[in-house]
Amino acid sequence: MTARVAGFGAAALTALALLALVPRLGNAYYLALAISLLQYTVLATAWGMFSGPTRYVSLATTAFFGVGAYTVAVLGEILPWPLVLLIAAALGAIVAGIVGLSTLRLSGVYFVIFTFGLTELIRQLVVWFEVNKSRVLGRYVFVDITQADIYWQLLALTAAVFLLGWLIARSRLGFALRVIGEDETVAKHCGINTTFAKVALFTISATVMTLVGAIMAPRWTYIEPSIAFNSMISFQVLIMALLGGAHRLWGPVLGAVPLTLLFELLSARFPNTFTIILGCIFLLIVYMLPRGVAGLLEKLSTTAGGKTRQRATA
Amino acid sequence: MAPVDAPWEDKMTTFLTRRTALLAAATCAATLGLTAIAEAQTSIKIGYAISRTGPNTGGAAVTTIPNYELWVKEVNAAGGIKLGDKRVPIEVVQYDDRSNAEEAVRALERLINQDKVDFILPPWGTGLNLAVGPTLNREGYPHLAATAVTDRAPELAKRWPNSFWLLGTSADAAKTLVELLNKLRDEKKIGDTVAMVSIADGFGIDLSSAARPALTNAKFKLAYDKSYPIGTQDLAPIVNEIKALNPDVFIAFSYPPDTLALTEQSRIAGLNPKVFYTGVGTAFPLYRQKFGKNTEGVMGIGGWSGDSPAIKDYLARHKAAAANGAEPDRWASAVTYASLQMLQQAIERVGKIDRAAVIKDLQTGTFDTVIGKVKLENNMPTRYWWVGQWQGGEFYGIAPAKNEGARTAIVPKPAWVAP
Fold first, then answer.
1. Of the residues A140, B49, B277, B316, which has the fewest C-beta atoms closer than 10 A?
2. In angstroms, how far is the first alpha carbon of chain B from the final one?
3. Residue A135, SS3?
4. Strand partners, B199
């Protein structure tokens, strides 16, 4: 087991080192694509960290992403960059904590609707503040951060997210969440503090999403609520995580990477019929891969390796 | 249900699912078949990413896309752009930015690095033009922003010398409007009560923040000054409240949907001040379609020299080329088309694909366009149309009055008539 972990660690480090060289390729397009891949990988993985084990479907990704982007819009030009990121993370954590405490008692579709509404709520609050207090809508972010910097920051965040996810899965918290996902009432009766466990993980996942928003913001120069709080992000992340399979830490990557590439290919080749084709593909995914790519891989490996392996990994 | 039934039912579901999936796949294949278009010819490759889906679609479809298509069609019909002593046709590469800043940036990076286009036409709207600014600057492409209104334009032009801000600043727009009001008051045509509403979005906030101090400094009485959220459906309370105040001037820094709604509501409520001014959308052909005779005397942002032969000719060509005979709007459309003429003239003067030289020419040259002779100063034009007015079914520029072709304002606005 330790040897396997060490092997995995070594492979991950090698991959990380290789990926860090992408900006050296000197092609801005590949760098942009790599940034996009990392962005969705982190978002989908962070989404899966909370929603996978607990089975709460959250559409709040955009809300946290936007909080991060807006923090940069407001503070980016005044404070040093690491401090801006720190404040963004703290803000994300605070919002997630408040939201988590007040809503994670909701379940099923009510939670989905609330998280969707949350994005709109935060966006309207920002608009209200900008209109009535600061009297500017649309802020400019002129910070000295190159595309390569954005890429490296995202890469570091990706590594951190996987490490964090791996650690959580091995901790009491991770176990508690799996029990909650199976049956929340049973979890309560076992003496698990379900509220604490859920809020803690929701906050961790949201903080990561906030950081992604903050890191990405310098890419656009200009930020207004409709740009920062674009609800498409929530849906794309959800679909990616579901395609990959949210029940495994590495599942969402399997969705984020092919879907980002697919979006890219479609918008390059079929700019005018992008949405139609996308809809068709989603239909196919839902029909053919209800448990995601991760589920498919597991199924394949169990039929190949026999039932014993499944019991070992389960 | 008896357990014996289960396997059969299972099979049935699988069958249905498969069939549905196949059907979906077939539909997809059919769609793809329809969209497979063969592209031919090379030479000057011009790329753009424009909002074909998402919230920017309306603006892009009225102001930007028809002009890009018209220009490419006309240039290619004439044999292409003149490089040295031969003409080379334009080849277009275009994408949908889905009204999304991140998509827009990536599409441009794709255009530059993968498609290796020679020139890039900008996206629609202030936000997206700002989003793509750094990329175009880094890669050294000329950036002719014809649909962006931002107060930071002079600063941006300095920061990105390859960028040209052809639509001016919102502060200038507000200032010109107040100057016009001031003049009308001096001529004793209006009193000094003003009611102002603005949409709680970039445009409305920028303009109202610029107009507020300008109005106060000019000693106008701001009787009403409120904003409404984007997407507000019912504007009747605002209009009724303003009507009760009986102002001389009504100013709405509004977006197209609420420009239409405010006009309609004012007609119904009988709010007919001496000056009736609405924001984006007033200059759209749709506005005249909807209000017909009632447009008479309505002022709005934008305008053009409707009497100039060049504009008349442009209007006719635009109508003939557009799929359903659509007319251009009377503000940014002509500026967009002029920006394309400027790009073409700059390329032809340079005589080869040398982007740095083209940028230099755009900064220093004089251009013959549908909006007249254009000579940029600090990467911005020296004159703009800021206030227009519907007069006899055409939206003429009325301010600044020193602009060539400026008409005299009709004040007071005639009464609303029953539609």
1. B316
2. 65
3. coil
4. B228
Q: How far is B38 from chain A (nearest CA, A)?
A: 12
**B144 and B342 Cβ atoms separated by less than 8 Å:** yes
Give the whole-angstrom CA distance, residue A214 versus residue A209.
Answer: 9
In the predicted model, is pLDDT for residue B16 greater than 60?
Answer: no
Cβ separation B21–A287 shorter than 8 A: yes
Tell me, what amino acid is at A120? E
B307 pLDDT tier (thresholds 50, 70, 90):
very high
Q: How far apart are CA B315 and CA B145, in angstroms?
A: 21
The radius of gyration computed from the CA coordinates of chain B, to the nearest angstrom, equals: 25
Q: Does B92 touch chain A (CB under 8 A)?
A: no
A5 or A205, greater pLDDT: A205
Give residue-wise pLDDT tens across range B34-69.
444 333 346 899 999 999 887 788 889 999 999 999
Q: Quote the CA–CA distance of B393 and B386 in Å, as a whole number.
A: 19
Q: Does B26 touch chain A (CB under 8 A)?
A: no
Here the tokens at position A140 are 């400019």
Chain B neighbors of A126, CB-CB under 8 A: none
Task: Name the more confident of A246 and B219.
Answer: B219
Residues on chain A touching B102 (C-beta within 8 angstroms): 36, 216, 219-220
Ramachandran bin of A80, using left for φ above 0, alpha for ψ from -120 to 50, beta for the remaining angles: beta
Q: How far apart are CA A230 and CA A66, in angstroms?
A: 8
Q: pTM of the full predicted structure? A: 0.80
Please give, one letter per residue, the 3-state secondary structure of chain B: CCCCHHHHHHHHHHHHHHHHHHHHHHHHHHHHHHHCCCCCCCCEEEEEEECCCCCCHHHHHHHHHHHHHHHHHHHHHCCCEEECCEEECEEEEEEECCCCHHHHHHHHHHHHHCCCCCEEECCCCHHHHHHHHHHHHHHCCCEEECCCCCCCHHHHHHHCCCEEECCCCHHHHHHHHHHHHHHHHHCCCCCCEEEEEEECCHHHHHHHHHHHHHHHHCCCEEEEEEEECCCCCCCHHHHHHHHHHCCCEEEEECCHHHHHHHHHHHHHHCCCCCEEEECCCCCCHHHHHHHHHHHCCCEEECCECCCCHHHHHHHHHHHHHCCCCCCCCCCHHHHHHHHHHHHHHHHHHHCCCCHHHHHHHHHHCEEEECCEEEECECCECCCCCCEEEEECCEEEEEECCCCCCCCCCCCCCCCCCCC
Contact A222 B131 (CB under 8 A): yes
Instruction: Write the ipTM.
Output: 0.74
User: Residue B222 pairs with which residues in a beta bridge?
Assistant: B194
A-proximal residues of B, 104-163, CB under 8 Å: 105-107, 109-110, 112-114, 126-127, 130-131, 133-135, 138-139, 152, 159
Contact list in B for residue A273 (CB cut-off 8 A) is 31-32, 35
DSSP assigned state of A192: -
A221: three-class secondary structure by DSSP:
coil
Contact A268 B139 (CB under 8 A): no
Q: Which amino acid is residue B229, in one-letter code?
A: P
A41 is written with which tokens? 């990988």
A76 φ/ψ angles, rounded to the nearest 5 degrees? -50, -35
- Residue that is written with structure tokens 């969707």 in the block: A116
Separation of alpha carbons B1 and A12, rounded Å: 51
d(CA A185, CA A188): 5
Six-digit token string for A287: 């029909």
Per-residue pLDDT reduced to its tens digit, A180-238: 888 888 888 888 888 888 899 999 999 999 999 999 999 887 888 878 888 888 888 98
The set of residues, in sequence order, having a beta carbon less than 8 Å from that of A192 and lying 6+ positions away, is A176, A179, A180
